[in-house]
Amino acid sequence: MSTAFQHIVQALHLDPGHERAQKLRKRVKEVEKLKEEGNASDESLHLSPHSFKAIRTRARINLNIEKDDAAIDDFKSAIREASAEDGATDADVRALKQELKKAEVALKRSKTKDYYKIMGVHKECTEVEIEKAYGKESLKHRPDKLVGN
Question: Rounded to two decimals, what is the model's pTM?
Answer without folding.
Answer: 0.54
